[in-house]
Amino acid sequence: MKTQQDTAVFLLRIALASGFLSAVASRLNLWGTQSSGWKKFVDYTAETNSFLPQSWASIIAVLSTATELSIGILLFVGYQVKGTARCASILTLFFATAMSISFGIKEPLDYSVFAFSAGAFLLSTFSRYQWSLDQFLQQ
């Protein structure tokens, strides 16, 4: 049973990391023609945060991208997983809330943003992270 839980925790960590890293890769045109690109992301940031001044969109886009890149890398290598997962949960909950305010509840539900946030929160509740840098450093 413990092995199944270890495997599930590992897969959750890698899935969350991949989600963050894929989003950043799309903004930076690393997915080729399937990329959203930076300009579209800044425009989407302004739409998602429609309750804030539009002039803030570029700053929010840069800060969120840097945060998502950091979270993605830290989760992928398994360093400071508990705290990083907690940050991921809070960030995605803010994103889901902004989406709900600007577009209605359907959008964050369709894109599973609340599920992503809950998964990150669940990841933050475990006491050990098999196959992670955290585990290696504890030995």
TrEMBL record:
Q: How does it sit in the membrane?
A: Multi-pass membrane protein
Question: Pfam families of this UniProt entry?
Answer: DoxX
User: Which UniProt keywords are given for this protein, alphabetically ordered?
Assistant: Membrane, Transmembrane, Transmembrane helix
Tell me which InterPro entries the record gives.
DoxX
Q: Where in the cell is it found?
A: Membrane
Membrane-spanning segments: 56-77, 84-105
State the protein's name. Answer: Membrane protein YphA (DoxX/SURF4 family)
UniProt organism field: Chryseobacterium sediminis
